[in-house]
Write a structure and sequence with these properties.
Strand order of the largest sheet: 2-1-3-4-5-6
Structural class: alpha/beta
CATH class of the largest domain: Alpha Beta
Mean pLDDT: 75
Number of helices: 17
Length: 702
């Protein structure tokens, strides 16, 4: 208190001694600065500190730092180098406690590199026990060497194993008592120390905020509301509700029955027919297990009752041939159902180049196409990002398919319920009163509830049936030895949906000409066209040039045969040889078969459309020619045009006049009938009707 009084007295003395106005103002400012802080802080003088904060305003305690529980996994001889790493971590403040696989927070994996990096690391990850599956991993690659400058690998293991949170490489050797004394090991230990410190902080923060949130939740749920006193409120809102305060608000009323939300669609498992076309080493079962574990309910059933087909196709030789052979194995009961295609590549290389074939273009029933990698040495599926992406795509597809099915079932059921309500229930809310509306009077009904049903559509308004797809009738013409390659082409066309029926030359729709090239291309093709029989002359031709070779990269001719033979509608070239059992397995033959298939589909569509519209036009023609003209009665017309033509109505048009004819005299043969000629002479004068047409030209009839 004495300090406060002395400060006030000093301020007053300074103001009293000020001689000028400016000095007085300055003294007043100093006095205010001395007094105001003491008043604001609620103390007697500037030397007295404010009281400590209340207990409820105390700062929260710091998060409790507990040791990190690690499961130690060592996959080879380390010469106690791993123990040196643990000792240094504990010495530098990173608390690490060794525990079992079930209770651990993360896995500390020491992997000595003894042969190949990739194989050793993948083998180490396969040794992780089941109790620790899915937990985060700290990978320590240990290179057995005495050279501190040894070149190390740059593999990004996080891409293949996403559970890795830290990946370091250290150097060790038994002659160096374990770890080498080098900058590389120092950097690796520093990275491990930083990672463990961050992990400890993260765990402590999670425990702390989890505890605080539970305490706050219990406080909010159990403590009363002392600050909101239940007093009589004058608020008209509360008076209208019949309560005294906001603490007495009644619970909201339950929703009306007609306002109740519809139940959620029932999620049922997807019924799949499992089709496996080769050895998978249980990789397909791993895919099914992961799908079921991630919530995609898949139920195996037969081909007749399935919702879709799950086709596992191991690629053992060539991609296209294996996939096409797999589709041919789909049973008849499942024909036309949607397919999920899983191409399975037998390899140990996660970076293997895969095909980019768009199978949906060839097989439109495919709704999902993925590629996975598997090998028997990897216990089935490889642990790689490609397989992870494929499993994610399958999971998303099954979820969408289930939602779609559930939605269809739900809305189908709702629509049936609504339909039954509308059809069977009486219309109680709309009594049938007599209506004065002119529309009702015109319709001859009393109210809107008595409106007659709409008339059925007229027969001539019915939609026409779809065109009937019939097989294409072909005449088969083979001009040399094919070693059954032509039969392979026909089988593949029929298997892919192009219906081809062999018939004779007279009844065929087109000619399928297989022309083996044995000597010269041009002479062989021309000789083949000369063998077309007379009954098939003029019909369209599909030319298949067959080159006898074992080299898929052989250079082929580029002759445009359509210019020489306009009846050709398709021209392809294939390779074949007797040592290859006919057709070669090569991209050229695949492209040729695809072109033939597309051509036959277009030809079938064209034929079906022609037959359909030809039938419809004949039906309409018969209707127009035989039916009476009932809508247009023959009334006398006053039109001057009809009077001029000498007819009564538009339905009695006179026949067109015959061309003008004149009789001319020919001294040699007598009278000759001559049509009026419009040929003009050199003088650009048109000949008359009576002139004899003697110049060489074509007469125009008009």
């Amino acid at each position: 208190m004495t300090d406060f009084v002395s400060s006030i007295s000093n301020g007053l003395e300074t103001m009293y001694n000020a001689s000028t106005k400016s000095k007085k103002v300055f003294a007043i400012i100093i006095l205010i600065l001395l007094i105001y802080p003491t008043l604001e802080l609620g103390v007697d003088s500037v030397t007295q500190q404010p009281p400590p904060p209340a207990p409820d305003q105390a700062l929260p305690p710091a998060p409790l730092m507990k040791p990190v529980k690690v499961f130690l996994l060592i996959t080879g001889q380390t010469y106690q180098a791993h123990q040196q790493i643990l000792d240094k971590l504990n010495a530098q403040g990173s608390k690490v406690m060794i525990t079992d696989a079930q209770q651990c927070d993360l896995i500390l994996l020491f992997c000595p590199i003894l042969s190949r990096v990739r194989s050793d690391v993948e083998a180490a990850f396969r040794k992780i026990p089941e109790d620790a599956q899915g937990k985060q991993v700290v990978l320590v690659q240990m290179h057995h060497t005495r050279k501190p400058e040894q070149v190390l690998n740059q593999i990004q293991w996080k891409e293949q194993f996403p559970i890795i949170i830290q990946d370091v490489q250290v150097l060790y050797h038994e002659t160096q008592n374990g770890l080498l004394q080098c900058p590389r090991n120092e950097r690796a230990l520093h990275a491990l120390q930083s990672m463990f410190a961050e992990f400890e902080n993260k765990m402590a923060t999670q425990r702390f905020f989890g505890k605080r949130s539970r305490e706050k939740s219990s406080d909010l749920n159990t403590d009363p509301v002392p600050k909101l006193l239940k007093e009589k409120s004058e608020d008209p809102v509360y008076q209208e509700l019949g309560v005294d305060s906001v603490t007495q608000l009644p619970p909201p009323p339950p929703p009306a029955p007609d306002q109740a939300l519809p139940p959620a669609p029932v999620m049922k498992p997807v019924k799949v027919f499992l089709l496996i076309t080769g050895q998978t080493y249980q990789a397909h079962q791993q895919i099914l297990d992961k799908l079921n574990a991630q919530g995609s309910k898949v139920m195996i059933t037969d081909a007749q009752q399935c919702d879709l087909i799950l086709l596992f196709c191991p690629i053992l030789s060539r991609v296209r041939s294996n996939v096409e052979a797999a589709f041919r194995k789909i049973p008849e009961d499942a024909q036309g159902k949607q397919v999920v295609l899983v191409q399975m590549h037998h390899t140990r290389k996660p970076e293997q180049v895969l095909n980019q074939i768009q199978w949906k273009e060839q097989f439109p029933i495919i709704i999902q196409d993925v590629q996975v990698l598997y090998h028997e040495t990897q216990n089935g599926l490889l642990q790689c990002p490609r397989n992870e992406r494929a499993l994610h795509a399958l999971q998303s597809m099954f979820v969408e398919f289930k939602n779609k099915m559930a939605t269809q079932r739900f809305f189908g059921k709702r629509s049936r319920e609504k339909s039954s309500d509308f059809n069977t229930g009486p219309v109680s809310k709309f009594p049938k009163k007599k209506s004065e509306d002119s529309v009702y009077k015109e319709l001859g009904v009393d109210s809107v509830t008595q409106l007659p049903p709409p008339p059925p559509p007229a027969p001539d308004q019915a939609l026409p049936p779809a065109p009937v797809m019939k097989p294409v009738k072909v005449f088969l013409l083979i001009t040399g030895q094919t070693y059954q390659a032509h039969q392979q082409i026909l089988d593949k066309l029929n298997a892919q949906g192009s219906k081809v029926m062999i018939t004779d030359a007279q009844q065929c729709d087109l000619i399928l000409l297989f022309c083996p090239i044995l000597s010269r291309v041009r002479s062989d093709v021309e000789a083949a066209f000369r063998k077309i029989p007379e009954d098939a002359q003029g019909k369209q031709v599909v030319l298949v040039q067959m080159h006898h070779t074992r080299k898929p990269e052989q250079v082929l001719n580029q002759i445009q045969w359509k210019e020489q033979f306009p009846i050709i509608i398709q021209d392809v070239q294939v390779l074949y040889h007797e040592t290859q059992n006919g057709l070669l397995q090569c991209p050229r033959n695949e492209r040729a078969l695809h072109a033939l298939q597309r051509m036959f589909v277009e030809f079938k569509n064209q034929m079906a459309t022609q037959r359909f519209f030809g039938k419809r036009s004949r039906e309409k023609s018969s209707d127009l020619n035989t039916g009476p003209v009932s809508k247009f009665p023959k009334k006398k017309s006053e039109d001057s045009v009809y009077k001029e033509l000498g007819v009564d109505s538009v339905t009695e048009q006179p026949p067109p006049p015959a061309p003008a004819q004149v009789l001319v005299t020919d001294p040699g043969s007598g009278p000759v009938e001559q049509i009026k000629c419009s040929y003009k002479t050199q003088g650009n004068e048109e000949r008359g009707n009576s002139e004899v047409c003697s110049s060489p030209h074509v007469c125009h009839i008009f």
